Amino acid sequence: MVSHERPDLVGSADRGLPPLVGELLARIRADSDWRSVLNGETHIGQAPGRLDIMGGIADYTGSLVCQMPLALATAALVQRRADRWLVVKSYNNTADSNSGPTSFRMSLDDFYGSGSLLEDCAIRVRFAGKDHWAAYVAGIFWVLAKHRHLTGRTKGANICCYSNVPIGAGLSSSAALEVAALNAVAGAYHLTLDPLETAVLAQKVENQIAQAPCGIMDQMASSLGRQGKLLLLKCQPHTIIGYEDLPEGTTVAAISSGVKHSVAGSAYTRVRVAAFMAHAIISAMARELGLKADPTGGYLANVRPNFYRRYLRPMLPRAMSGQDFLRRYGRTADTVTRIDPAEQYAIRSAAEHHILENQRVERFVTALKAARQDRERNLRRAGRLMLAAHASYTHRVGLGCTETDFLVRAVIDGSPNGGFYGAKATGGGGGGSVAIL
User: Fold this and answer.
1) Do the strands 423-425 and 239-244 form a parallel or antiparallel pair, or are they unpaired?
2) Contact 396, 349 (CB under 8 A)
3) Residue 275 contacts residue 61 (beta carbons within 8 Å)
4) Where exactly are the structural domains of the chain?
5) Which value, in Å, is the radius of gyration of the alpha carbons in the chain?
6) Structure confidence at residue 114 as a pLDDT band (50, 70, 90)
């Protein structure tokens, strides 16, 4: 199923439905508290997880990224209610609960105060602790209201979700949930959302309500990815360069490290803040030097590596406290994170990872295309770029872990005669999975 399809399940038999949808329906039928929802009009959305082949965290600084949609996916079923209640049921263990299916309920009135929509900071507390998982679903209604797709009189909904994307494996289980639920909600409420708008709104749910400072690539891959093809995405902010076939006889795979990662984790956030601090400092340096143009062009990834090494690196501080940065430069351009005055940020290493990662991804794409004529040499070249990206993740910005390092070494060392060309930690790092070419 294409990720943005919204099939109406009224009167449909399970035959011909995607297997994951059939699994969701079977679980609902077996649930005495929920099976009655299938007696009314229901709408369903399905969206895949993704495998980050190259680019990773550099999406939020405007890099080119390469993403592969997975066969693993999430399905969400929505039925409108006659009252204002949102009732959400997950048939998975959530990241906040290991006790099996989990439920959540709230009134849409909770999004409003004195007749107007509350700010996101006032909404987040509703999803604290064990209810945090529900922010990725219920938060959709706040975002849709914020962007005037829904009103203060909109009725509530029953929402059921089921996924086979592992949580915390770095395969974008959250984006798959957001996009699947958004598609189902759009069908139920007769909203016209194209796949790009769906991806943008899904990112807002994650950034503003779930408080995970992700870039746009996960939601774009889930909403606009094509099975079996690499999505080439320039994250400025979300330009699709194209869809690329892998060289014939080549595939990508993932191995889970068994270590759960979190985009909302402190290490990921600290690197993101440092990258935006570097961006602000470089822009300030350009003004002080009287350069005609800002070398970032609005995105840190636009800085060319040779220019950075020759002119910017010698002047960029190795590290700086949040307090010193705020006193000298003020705020950054990032609306998703905040600078902690007491934190020490590794500014130079963050800048170098993002600037060099964009170049690595560009060269990776070139190597894959060239592999159609000169297969082995260019696949080895692409693999070396993946290994360089992994080394930068691990050593330059500290988002690796022992388990992902072990897997990368095992893959490469275990293939002395070729076959495995490259491997790297995926997504936000700090655990999760390893992508293998």
Assistant:
1) unpaired
2) yes
3) yes
4) 19-50+69-225, 253-261+355-436
5) 22
6) confident
Indicate the residue type of 50: R
For 367, the token pair is 């190597």
pLDDT at 400 over 50: yes
Helix, strand or coil, per DSSP, at residue 255? strand
Q: How far is CA 387 from CA 251, 278, 319, 405, 423, in A?
A: 17, 25, 26, 10, 6
Q: Among the options 218, 294, 405, 413, which is catalytic?
A: 218
> Is 219 within 8 Å of 178 (Cβ atoms)?
yes
Q: Is 218 a catalytic residue?
A: yes
The fold for domain 19-50+69-225 equals Ribosomal Protein S5; domain 2 (3.30.230)
Question: Rounded distance, CA 290 to CA 286, Å?
Answer: 6
- Beta pairing, strands 157-163 & 85-90: parallel
The C-alpha atoms of residue 204 and residue 202 are separated, in whole angstroms, by 5
- 253-261+355-436 has CATH 3.30.70.890 classification: yes
pLDDT tens-place string over residues 289-343 = 899 999 999 999 999 999 999 999 999 999 999 999 999 999 999 999 999 999 9
The tokens of 187 are what?
A: 């069908």
Q: Which residues, other chains included, contact 168 with Cβ-Cβ below 8 Å and sequence gap of 6+? A: 95, 260, 261, 262, 431, 432
Collapse the DSSP code of 242 into the 3-class scheme (helix H, G, I; strand E, B; otherwise coil) and give the result.
strand
Q: How many CB atoms lie within 10 A of CB 99?
A: 8
pLDDT at 10: 36
